[in-house]
Design a protein that fits this description.
Distance between the termini: 42 Å
Shape: globular
Strand content: 25-35%
Radius of gyration: 23 Å
Strand order of the largest sheet: 9-8-7-6-5-2-1-10
Number of helices: 12
Low-confidence stretches: none
Mean pLDDT: 94
Number of strands: 29
Oligomer: single chain
Largest sheet: 8 strands, parallel
Structural class: alpha+beta
Length: 515
């Protein structure tokens, strides 16, 4: 938890401003609520004649800034990039990683935001760049949180193509957040990020979290209901809570939300589990709904009913949906009020863009319920292309050119994904394999034209070209078997077409069981 300068000040931030923010975080109670990391973003740096990083005229004494923050019970965060230049065109760390890491340690830095701002030659090259700085930071002997953003340059889908936990403590899952509910083009809106980040619950755990980007609470672009949804779902998704509003002027309603102890406790719960999607409908543009469940360390469960649509909806969930027998006490996490006792389920009207959030204490819950809930069972697993718990599409930003979810009466779930090709991709996230190896994965698809090619990746690599037969009928499904290399545990399988034209429309995939 902390605060970052970028969304409010951009390159206009200065050392004196950061120091005043620190004082405001103490004065308004945000520090004591948990916002400890105060993070300088881009535009602070230059290099001296010996190639050493130093602050520019806006940051005359970065060691002094670290001391100022530490004296107030805060942590010092800073920004750099693995390329030659940062996103704003300042000196990057390429070729200077060891020296820069030692410099950060000497200044008392506690947190590094490492932002990939140049196009990588390959995903493996990007991984190597992050690993170089990770190793340099570890070698300093100072504990520095390593927070990366792989979604830049031509790598806008990198955040979802692989699990970045091997090279970072937290990784941005999506592109930049914007101060808006929905973004049809860059930057993301709140609903865009929820749509994507909710599918990545399988890879979040202590030591590696999905960073849904900074909080826009208090910045004025969202109404009160949308701010509640934003904060509550970031808490449910175990995202870092990094505020960006000016803490000296943030309005009282937004400040109270930022300091809400119940929602903060859900986010900071020591199990470190990201909420799983257990119900709802596909989020397309700003429509649809989700039901999310997050096990908590004391045996409780947090349940969120999210209405992404533009009109009120009545949404429901139950303890049985997460495997808890009997009844429980349901406490509203905005107000702290008990809304029902001795209840096994709840049904409530949720306003447009709103989210109802409950913490449920169920005396009848078995001690192992959360382990059973988050661990997949042995056996074969199937994944629908429209499943809001597992799939997202890329190339989604323009109204007519992105991969799309389309009605398909012949398809197993009544929908398919069409227009896959070029920059348009379909990601199946959280695909489970009991053991590592090569699997005969069945792809159910629709192709009423001639034979079509598809590019298929597993975990961002292992690219292969597969041809799918066309049967001349767009109202019937076909199946094909593809050999895919999967890791033990969870995987991401990506469909695209790097060879010109369109891939077939995808209905679902199935992964067989293995001993």
């Amino acid at each position: 938890m902390g605060w970052n300068a970028w969304n409010t000040y951009g390159c206009g931030a200065t050392q004196s401003l950061i120091e005043s923010v620190a004082d405001s975080l103490v004065a308004n109670g945000m520090r004591d609520a948990g916002y400890r990391y105060v993070n300088v973003d881009d535009c602070w740096m230059t290099r001296d004649a010996n190639g050493n990083l130093t602050g520019n005229s806006n940051y005359p004494d970065l060691k002094g800034l670290g001391d100022y923050l530490h004296a107030r019970g805060l942590k010092f965060g800073i920004y750099e990039s693995p390329g030659a230049k940062t996103c704003a065109g300042y000196s990057g760390s390429a070729g200077h990683e060891v020296n820069d890491a030692n410099t950060f340690a000497s200044w008392g830095v506690d947190y590094l935001k490492y932002d990939y701002c140049e196009s990588a030659s390959s995903l493996s090259a990007q991984v190597a760049d992050f690993a170089t700085m990770r190793n340099a930071l570890k070698a300093t002997g100072r504990p520095i949180v390593f927070s990366i953003n792989p979604n830049s340059g031509s790598n806008t889908g990198a955040g979802v193509t692989r699990d970045w936990g091997d090279v970072s403590d937290q990784a941005r899952s999506t592109e930049d957040i914007g101060n808006q509910w929905w973004g049809q083009s860059w930057p993301n809106g709140i609903a865009n990020i929820v749509t994507e980040n909710a599918t990545l619950a399988w890879r979040a755990k202590p030591g590696t979290f999905n960073d849904a980007d900074m909080l826009e609470v208090g910045n004025g672009g969202l109404n009160t209901t949308e701010e509640q949804t934003h904060f509550a779902l970031w808490a449910m998704m175990a995202s870092p809570l990094i505020a960006s509003a000016n803490p000296s002027t943030v309005n009282a309603t937004s400040l109270a939300l930022l300091k809400n102890p119940r929602l903060i406790a859900i986010d900071q719960d020591t199990l470190g589990i990201q909420a799983r999607v257990i119900g709802g409908s596909r989020l397309v543009n700003s429509s649809g709904s989700l039901v999310l469940a997050k096990p908590l360390s004391n045996g409780d469960v947090a349940l969120a009913l999210y209405n992404g649509s533009d009109s009120a909806q009545t949404l429901s969930t139950s303890l049985a949906a997460v495997g808890i027998p009997g009844t429980g006490t349901w406490t509203d996490q905005y107000t702290g009020s008990v809304v029902q006792s001795g209840a096994a389920a709840i049904s409530t009207q949720v306003p447009a863009h709103g989210t109802a959030v409950y913490r449920v204490t169920a005396p009848g819950a078995p001690a192992s319920w959360s382990t059973t809930f988050i661990n997949p069972g042995a056996g074969a697993h199937g994944y629908e292309a429209e499943d809001p718990a597992h799939t997202i599409v890329a190339g989604r930003w323009t109204g007519n050119s992105g991969a799309t979810f389309a009605a398909c009466p012949a398809c197993s779930g009544g929908q398919k994904v069409s227009w896959i090709g070029g920059t348009n991709k379909l990601y199946f996230n959280g695909v489970y394999a009991q053991n590592p190896g090569t699997y005969q994965v069945t792809v159910q698809y629709v192709n009423g034209g001639g034979d079509r090619d598809a590019s298929i990746w597993t975990n961002g690599g292992n690219l292969q070209k597969v041809s799918f037969h066309g049967n001349g009928n767009w109202n019937a499904t076909q199946t094909a078997t593809v050999q895919l290399t999967l890791n033990a545990g969870y995987n991401t399988i990506t469909f695209g077409n790097e060879y010109g034209g369109w891939a077939p429309d995808i209905d679902r995939i199935s992964v067989p069981a293995t001993g």
